[in-house]
Amino acid sequence: NAGVTQTPKFQVLKTGQSMTLQCAQDMNHNSMYWYRQDPGMGLRLIYYSASEGTTDKGEVPNGYNVSRLNKREFSLRLESAAPSQTSVYFCASSEVRGTSGEQYFGPGTRLTVT
Amino acid sequence: AQSVTQLGSHVSVSEGALVLLRCNYSSSVPPYLFWYVQYPNQGLQLLLKYTTGATLVKGINGFEAEFKKSETSFHLTKPSAHMSDAAEYFCAVSVGPGGGADGLTFGKGTHLIIQP
Known about the structure:
The structure holds two protein chains of two kinds.
Chain A: E1 4-7, E2 10-13, E3 19-25, E4 31-38, E5 42-49, E6 56-57, E7 64-68, E8 74-78, E9 87-94, E10 104-105, E11 109-113
Parallel strand pairs in A: 2-11
Antiparallel strand pairs in A: 1-3, 3-8, 4-5, 4-9, 5-6, 7-8, 9-10, 9-11
Chain B: E1 3-7, E2 10-14, E3 19-26, E4 32-38, E5 44-50, E6 56-58, E7 64-68, E8 73-78, E9 87-94, E10 105-106, E11 110-115
Parallel strand pairs in B: 2-11
Antiparallel strand pairs in B: 1-3, 3-8, 4-5, 4-9, 6-7, 7-8, 9-10, 9-11
């Protein structure tokens, strides 16, 4: 049981480049999330997916797109990276029905945009 | 909308001393409350959670927290600090299981430093 996995672990981009962050979970959870973590800011929700085929904006969605490819996978895309998107990105998953629904986090992707 | 305030961005305690990390929340509905720990260069790991029922909850590594509705608090404690407890701690709140469309709302974190 790998839990939540993320690739890549590290990435350096130049301003204007694009990339996709990958996330997969093997816990059969319905809900998946993308957060960004910045120093002194805690974690902030970028996008959320309640189930396959559905996505919703979170607190800080500008500059990002997401795809819920299937129940296991939820990707985050930066179409034109900006220095303000330098951050650590975490994917999480949870089961919202019948449980307390704590979220399980991946190890993170450390992104630097120069 | 809910919010979380963690008092003290850095807390320093001596090894063997009491650890107290403070968390206050605001929520318009009964909250689900969580404490997560983050070790350097790692993801977040759940320490403990409160959903309903007993207000004193015990978690991993000897940590516990008490939900006090009248004070809107969910402070984290550990009787005796260990060097391995040095990490970043996050308090989080959600208004339903899993967080729903709002996800979890996190505090800004408290960096716990353990002095030898």
